[in-house]
């Protein structure tokens, strides 16, 4: 397993903040990040958080939790499939933290951890659906506490040892490792991503993908249901005295409620990523962000105490407009540059939004950006804002042009929304996917869509055909000449098919299909090059690699492994076909490659660019003009 190499600066993270955890006394904060590190902050003065020291994993870090008995002990959980337990000195800026133990490799990414009240045992929950119990004094596995049929997302332990786990299968399970008779289950109608016991252990708060938070008894009877937002409610935490709780939702806001479910406050910032929230004594909340550090918020007044200091430009989406490659970033900026020049003299920074740009497409002289905040922006090639859609109810991770008059936006909630290309007014909705629409591409006068419900579908808003299903969520789809479709999945496979209209001229059917073996990690993005009779498939993975397969419908075989083309220093985030023989490939390390077919039909790296260098050159050009 290759280690992330993002080289974060001394003042914060080099990628979005995935989790936040206050030490019980509220004087220290641990923040986890996609950059593979945990940063420890002195937050004695919440208006002036000060970074102290950094802990390292090999992959992105999902969770950190302080020990309830020994406040100098911290557990951290990572996508490198390990959990590390650290001893943190009171002044880690002068004395380095000590790694106490690493719990044996798990079978999949570890999403969250929680300490048992004794301070020795730790619960770990994983993408494999399992909740496991470990003794951190010896590093030994003590058994399973429970399991889910889909990803187990979060765990919380009450003060008297009740372990609550929640998952994408909608299951909320309560177990007691010491008393098997204390068990209860409750199945929600939606995926459940967050949970937290009140400090007195009498109420379990859970947050659902449909925007609802529920307050449950220890036996999982529903006390209250609260509609938080029109999009996923992701994280939840309780005030110290249990008089209120706060929910982080994918509308980019913190929602504060009284213990009886009455709304107190709503606080939003487009830079926040509320997949994590924690509350310190005194009512200070910390929440994750897309920038280089956490947000600290006074929950009593719903006002900001401190904010992150610098954006990150991790690339999420690409498009081509007028010979320039557009790159949409976590910062909300679109970077425009000429991919045919080894040293672009004047890359341009187009500030589209304060919220991350998750998707891009073009139509004529304009480009369109879908944002985490749930809007679609229409801009001209100078970046001037021409129109903004109404809020679409959830982040917009996918966007494509159907024709010169219409776009389709796919949302985190699974909606497929038609938009008029000029005004961005809504013109219709299609049958939704049962999960986030991860990828949209034009296809035969309509579009192809890939989603976390494991399916690939093609057609129009009102008439769609499911072509195939993967064993896990589908991350991306690509098409070639309205004949070839390829998808990539978290099941580590690539599927590529030759499709045609059904015998009755309606719908679509698969004529040939092959399943190709990807690397042993989630395959994130895909593109197609060359001749439809023998297309070249390119795919990028969370293992940092870009791979290629050559498909032969007459003699090709399933389960062929790809050939490594190149490697990044982080996962590969997105691809976009520049023309019939070239593809741009971007990684979360900020590298952008232009790869293409040479005369012999082999895939080669033609050019390399670095997002941070492009940003610096663009700013230097602006400063030179201004001076």
Automatic annotation (TrEMBL):
Transmembrane feature ranges: none
WD repeat start-end pairs: 10-43, 54-96, 103-144
Record InterPro entries: Quinoprotein_ADH-like_sf, WD40/YVTN_repeat-like_dom_sf, WD40_PAC1, WD40_repeat_CS, WD40_repeat_dom_sf, WD40_rpt
Stated name of the protein: WD40 repeat domain-containing protein
Keyword GTP-binding: no
Keywords: Repeat, WD repeat
Species name: Streptomyces fuscus
Keyword Cytoplasm included in the entry's annotation: no
